[in-house]
Amino acid sequence: MSVKVTWYSHACVLIETEGTHLLIDPFISGNPLAPVKPDEIPADYILVSHGHGDHVGDTVDIAKRTGATVISNFEIHNWLLNQGVENGHPQHIGGGFDYPWGRVKLTIAQHGSALPDGSYGGNPCGFLFYVQGKKIYHACDTGLFYDMKLIGEEGIDLAILPIGDNFTMGPEDGLRAVKLIEPQKVLPIHYDTFDMIKQDPAAWKDRVEQETSTQVTVLKPGEYVEL
Ligand code: NI
Ligand code: MN
Fold it and tell me: What residues are neighbours of ligand 1 (ion), with CB under 5 Å?
């Protein structure tokens, strides 16, 4: 069975593996590019990378509707439970856990993490998924960091990387990230949602495929790639 990875725009990605839906950073309300409504998205688990509003997004409403288990760092996990989310599993950077559907490890990310109400959100993270023998690295919001090379040493099938610039890596550092990680495929994200992060993903695809052996998958919001 394949792993289906749907991009809902910005950093919001849905990974479907053997009937389980893993929803990452569900910023849907207030997202001008979102192709769906918050109440249309399935979720068994919701993973939140950091506290910013464009990542916590609709987590509370979707978790309450679906009963999904939220996975995040300890600080954001506790904050979400205080907002009325019933099921949660805290992890922290460097730690992995084996769930019934596979494993996820929290990785470092160079960014901030204050929650929408100003609460302390701990350190931001990325996610490394191990599902059906595939390894998927979602970098979430981050600048370039050399330890991406360590993540790449695991043998990444799909890297999901921000290229929007301004708040995260832009196209130049995104290319350098691909060279450090050396994934089979890369999916660019976190661009075009707002004017400040407008990018040309087709130009980035050409450049990455000229300079590396990684295949670039450019999706429109709502489209998916299968692994
Ligand atoms: Ni952010
Ligand atoms: Mn962001």
Answer: 52, 141
Gap from CA of 18 to ligand 1 centroid (Å): 30
29: CA distance to ligand 2 center in Å?
A: 14
The pTM is what? 0.98
Calculate how far, in angstroms, residue 96's C-alpha sits from the geometric centre of ligand 1: 22
The count of domains in the chain is 1
**How many whole angstroms from 51 Cα to the centroid of ligand 1?**
7
Structural domain harbouring 131 = 4-222
Q: Which residues contact 216 (CB under 8 A, 6 or more apart)?
A: 185, 186, 187, 188, 201, 204, 205, 208, 209
CA separation for the pair 58, 141 (Å, rounded): 17
pLDDT in tens, 107-143: 999 999 999 999 999 999 999 999 999 999 999 999 9
Q: Does residue 227 fall inside a structural domain?
A: no
Residue 17 lies in a domain: yes
